[in-house]
Structure formats: C-alpha cells, structure tokens
Amino acid sequence: MAHQIQKISNPQGKGVVGIIEDLRACTPMLVEAKSNYQWLADYFTSTLVLSAKYGFKPVIGKDYYLYYKNQEWKLSLIEPQAWKTHDPGVFFAECELNKDMSWSLILSPDWQKHSTLVNAINELEQAFFNCVNDSKPIVDKLPFFKQHLSYYQRLGANALARSLKQSLEIKLGKEKSLSLAGTALVAELASVNKPLLEASIKY
Predict the structure, then answer these.
(1) Burial class (CB in 10 A: 0-12, 13-18, 19+), 176
(2) What is the pTM of this model?
(3) Which has the closest alpha carbon to 33: 22, 21, 42?
C-alpha cells in the first residue's frame, strides 16, 4: 500500500492522508472468479473508460456517458439529450462503475454507424491484445500505476488492477495467478468468438 501511495501522491494538492482515504474508497468489493473471456473483457472495457478524460470521482452505481471527439474519449455526467449548444462528440455508451471497480456499458444502438467510433474501438482492441498476448505474467501488465493518467483516472486504474489481480487469485490461487501468462487467457477467446465489449454490456 505504501508503495502505491508514494506513486499516486500529491495530486491536485492532496496530502498523503487524502490519498489514503481515496484509495480506501476505491477498494474493490464483491470480487469473484471470472472466466478468461470475462476477465479480459472487463479489463478491456474498463481500460477504455479509464482512458477517457474526466475531472470527477466516479461513484459506484451512478450513470456516466462516454463520448468520442477529435480522437479523444470523454466521460461526462451529462446524458446526450441534455446538451444544448455544446457538442460533446459522438455518443458511444452509458457507463456504470461496478462494486468490483470494473465498468459496465450500455452501448448506443447507433455506434457502429459511426466509422470514427468503429475505427477507434478496433485500434484500442488491437493495442490491448498486442499488450497482453505474450508469455509474460498478466499481473505484471495490470495498471497499478500509470503516470500519464490524471488523478481520478489513476485511482480507478489502480482499483481495477487490484480487482483483476484478486479475481485471478480467487480462481487460481496466489502462486499460479502470479505466473499466468497473457497467452493462456487469450487462447480461450478463439472458442468464444465474441467481441470483448459484449461481455461487459449491461442489460
């Protein structure tokens, strides 16, 4: 914990006590063992949401809205119908933070009609697979600390990493989970034959 706090320290003038409180507030709850497909899907979908720009602390169970504009993702508190004069970009999905600190989506029914969105998702998915699909331990790829992220994004990424690590430990045991290669997880996807986004859709 101390190692994580040191790295996340001094965001927006916050002291160590404030950071500890924020880390505790982002503690994953109700973490469960997941299939390889679901685990990768939650990792990918949550990484997508956490790559978006936002300047607020997301709350579990609240709805947020993901837009894409000028090659950037933006997470907003404002739903598409509520915008008046400002153009937030193309609406992609309604997002909800789960208790285990992963994200679920309700995709816009029209998102695949927008080539910019389709291309952006395809590029993100390809980059994701390029990152995880090798012989290195998958836990070493988890986003415990990402320097380029803003404070609240970084908190969310750290919480997601803790959740995914814990999920693997529940499923495999600590020792096996620490040595599990990304290729072992990705190998299952060939039999599933579904896009990663589908597993994290909220109905």
Answers:
(1) exposed
(2) 0.88
(3) 42
Average pLDDT score over residue span 45-60: 95
C-alpha span between 9 and 67 (Å, rounded): 29
Domain around 6: 2-199
Q: Which residue has the tokens 């598409």?
A: 80
Question: How many angstroms separate the CA atoms of 181 and 178, rounded?
Answer: 9
HEC-encoded secondary structure of 41-79: HHHHHHHHHHCCECCCCCCCCCEEEEEEECCEEEEECCC
Number of domains in the chain: 1
Q: Which amino acid is at 112?
A: Q
Per residue in 85-104, pLDDT tens?
A: 889 999 999 999 999 999 99
Residue 1 has pLDDT above 50, yes or no: no
Rounded CA-CA distance 108/47 in Å is 18
Q: Which two tokens stand for residue 152?
A: 């609240």
User: What is d(CA 189, CA 129) in angstroms, rounded to the nearest whole number?
Assistant: 11
